[in-house]
C-alpha cells in the first residue's frame, strides 16, 4: 500500500467517523458531539443569567474555552477529511460551524464583542445534523415526509391567516383607535395575530363594546380554523403510514451530500464512490 | 381583418392578460399586481406609524399617489376589456377595486378625510383574486373543497359554541358580579369566548373560588371540544384526497364568471365563447 | 264529525305546529320562536349594561313584558295540545320553559327580585329544541353520533387531565409558594388548568426559575396532548361518514318523545299513533 | 383442608379483593378506595386554604387521621396478602403508598414537618391503579395503545419544539434585551415556550417592533405546527380502531404483575398460577 493510499484510507476512516453514523466509532462521535453541544448551550444560557455569571464567571469562561477548542479541532478535522473542503466550508452547516466557534476567539481580540456571544447559540442548529441518529427510529423521517407533502397546503393556509390578520388588524385600528393601545396598524396586526393564534398575551386588549365584538369573532375564527392545518397533516400522516422510509446515514466523501438510497454505492450528486 | 375585429381582438388580448393567468403575459401581470398590492399595504401600514409618518411623509405621499394612479389605470382597463362592464363594476371585486382606489382622490377634495384612508387596506382582498396563480399548485382548491364540504358541520359547531358561551357568560355574571370585572352580561359573554377559545387575555379573570371553578370547567371544555372542528376537517380532507381538482383559470370575456371546467369552451353561465 | 273528534283534530293541528317541524306552519312557528328567543336574549343582555338600561329602561321593560306574555301563551298552548300534559311539564324543556318565563311575573310581586332576572337567560337552552330544523341539514346529527361514540374515550382523557393538573398544581404550590401568587392548592390547580389548556390568563404566573421550568413542561405537555381528543374525534368522524342519519322531526302527540325512525307510524315509547 | 391450605385460601381471597377487580368484592373495594382517595385529596386541598383551615382545623385534622389509618390498614393488608411482599414494597405503587401515608405520622413526631404534608397529594397517583375499572370500558386501553405507537414520533416532535424555542428565545434575548423583560436567555426561552404553545401569559411580552414581528412568526409557527402531534395521534387512532383490547384485570398473586392475556392461567413474568 503506497503512502498516498495510506493517506486516503486514513481520511476515509476519519470521514466515516465524523460525517456518518453507521459504524461504532461514528455513533460514539455523534453522541459525544451531542453532549458537547448541549453542554455548550447550557453554558451560553447560564452566562446570560447575571447573578450566576457574577458568581461563577471563571468556571464559565474556562469551560467555554475548552468547548470552543474542541469545536475548533472538529471544524479542522471536518475540512481535512473531506475531498472538496470548500463544498463543506460554504455549506449551511459549514457556516454554522464557523459562526458558532468564532465568537470566543473574537472576544480575545475585541474586548467589548458582547453581541457576538449569542452567536454561539447557533450551535444548537448543529443538533439537527446529528439527528441522523434519530433517523434510525424512522419517526423523524416519516414526520418529514408528511410535512413535505403538506407543505404547499400549509403555506397557502398560513398566507391566508396573515391576510385575514392584516385586514382584521386594520379594522380594529379604526374601531379601537390609539387611545385603547392600538397605536398603529402594524401593532393592530400584531394584536390580531396574537388573538387569532389563541396566544392572547393581554398586553393589548379591546375596550370598546364593538371592539370586543370583533375580537370575539376573531377568536372563534381562530379557534375554528386551527382545524385546517390539523386536517391537512392528519390526512397526510394517514397516507405516509404506507410509505417506506430510508435509513441510510452515509454522506458522500467527496461532496458531503446525504439522503442516499439504502443500497446506493455511488453518490447520486457527484457520482463518487460511497464508503462501503 | 375589419376594424371591429381588430378592436375585439385587442380587447381579447387585454382580457386574457388582465383576467386570466394561463398566458405568459397574464402571469406577469398578476405577479406585478401582487407586488403592487403588497407594496401598497406596507405603505398604508407605515403611514399609520406616527414616528415614521413624521419623518418620511413626502415619500409615503408620493408613493401612494403612484400606486393609486396605477390601480386607477388597471380599474379603467378592466372596464374597457370586458364586454359587460356593469357586471364587473357591481361585482364583489369591482366594488373592492373602486373603494380601495378612491380614498386618495377624496383626500384631494376633502382635506380631513382621514378615516377613508384605512379603506385602502381593502386592497389586500384583491390578493385573493390573484390566487388564481396559487390554484395551479392545487393546494388551495383542495382546501376549499374540504372546507365547503364541512361548512354545515362547522356552522352548527360554532353556533353551539356561541350558545354555550352566552349561557356560561350569564352564569359567570351572576357568580362573579360587577366588582370582579364582569360588569355586564355582554362583557361576561366576551370573557367566556376569550376563555373557551383558549385565548385568555387576562384583562378579566375570575377572583372568587366558585368563579375559578366554573372557569376551569369552561377551559377544559374548550380544550376538549377544539377536537370537533378538527375531526370534521380531517375526515373531509381524507375524502377530498381522492377528488380531482380543476385548474382552469379562464374567466368568461362576457360575464367574468370563473371556475370553468378544464375542457370548457363556452361559459357555463352566459354561454359565450371562452378565449382559446 | 262529532264534537269530540273536532276537538281532537284541532289539538292534532296545534300539536303538529308547536311540537313538530315537517309542515309549513310548523316550520314558520319554529322560525318565529327562534326570533323571539334571540330577541329576548338580546334584551336580557342589554338590560345588564348599566348605561343602556338607564337610557332605555322603559323600552326594555315593555319589550320584556311583550315577550314574556308571548312565551306564557306558548307555554299554555304546549300544555293544552299534548295528551299527557304532566309529561311535558316535568320534562327538561317543560321546566326550562317555566323557569325562563316566571321571573318577570315575580318582579311584579317581589320588587327586589333582581337575581331571578338572569334565569331568563335559560331561554337560550330552548334554541336546542328548535334545532330540529338544523337536523334537516344532517350535520348536527352526524356530529352527535361521532361525539357519542367517542364519549367514553374523551371522559377518560379529561379525567386524566384533571388528575395531572391536581398533581402539578400541588407541586407548583410547593415550588412557588404563597408569596408568588400560588396562595393555596386549589388556586394552584386552577393555575395548572389555565396553563395546561393553553388559556394562560397571566393573573398568576411563576416567578422562580424552577417554577418556570415546571410551567414550561406543563405547557409543552398541554400543547402535545391536545392531539389526543382530536385524534379520537377524527377517527370517529371518519367512521361516522358512512352512517345514515334520521331526519324525522315528528314528536309523539301523547308523550312528546322524539327521534322516531323515518318511516315510523307509532311512537316507539308509548305506542300511540304519530301524526301523519 | 389443612390449616396451611386454609391460610393460603384466605390470602387468596384477600389478594383477589385488593389487587384485582373481576369479583364483586374486588370492584366494591376499588370503588371504596377511589372515594377515600378523592376525599383525602379534597382534605389536602382544603387544608392549604388558610381561611378554611383556621375555621375547621379540628375537623380536617380528625378526618385526615381517619383516612391515614384506613390507608395504613390497606398498606398492611397489601403486604400480607401477597406472596413476595418486597416486590410490592419496592414497586412504584408500593413506594407511593408508603410516601402518601407516612406524613401524618411524621407530623406526630416532628411538630414542624409542614413540608411533608404535600406528599399526601401523591395519593392521587393511586387512582391510576384503580383505573383497572376503567379498563372495562376499553377506552383507556385503546388510548394507551395509540399513544404508545406514536410515542417515538411525539418525542421527536417535542424535541424539535424545544430546540426551536431555545434558538428563538436566544434571538429574542438579543432583539428585546433586558430592559423589556427578557432578562436572560433561560427567561427568553421560557417566554418562547409560553408563546409557541399558544399559552401567552403576558407576564413578558415584546415591546420593540422587530420583537413583535419575530413574536408573530413564533405564534403563527406554533399555531401551524400544533397540527403535527394531532396528525400523528389521529392516524394512530384510526389504525388502533381495528386492534383488540385485553380487559383482564388479574394481578399475579406472587409478583403482582398485571396485563395478563385474557385466557392466561399462569403469570407471564414468574410462572405462578393466577387466581381462577
From TrEMBL, chains A, B, C, D:
Task: List the GO cellular component terms.
Answer: voltage-gated potassium channel complex
- SUPFAM superfamilies per record: Voltage-gated potassium channels
Q: Give all residue intervals belonging to the Putative zinc-ribbon domain.
A: 249-274
Q: Where is the Ion transport domain?
A: 27-241
The parts of the chain that form a coiled coil are none
Keyword field:
Ion channel, Ion transport, Membrane, Potassium, Potassium channel, Potassium transport, Transmembrane, Transmembrane helix, Transport, Voltage-gated channel
- The answer to whether the entry has keyword Nucleotide-binding is no
Q: What GO terms in the biological process aspect are recorded for it?
A: action potential
Domain of life, per UniProt, equals Bacteria
Pfam families linked: Ion_trans, Zn_ribbon_3
Its membrane topology: Multi-pass membrane protein
Q: Where in the cell is it found?
A: Membrane
Question: What GO molecular function annotations does the UniProt record carry, in alphabetical order?
Answer: voltage-gated potassium channel activity
Show the stretches that span the lipid bilayer.
28-46, 58-77, 89-106, 152-175, 181-201, 213-233
InterPro entries named in the record? Ion_trans_dom, VG_K_chnl, Volt_channel_dom_sf, Znf_ribbon
**What PANTHER family does the record tag this protein with?**
POTASSIUM VOLTAGE-GATED CHANNEL PROTEIN SHAB, VOLTAGE-GATED POTASSIUM CHANNEL
Put simply, this protein is called: Ion transporter
Read off the lineage from the record: Bacteria, Pseudomonadati, Bacteroidota, Flavobacteriia, Flavobacteriales
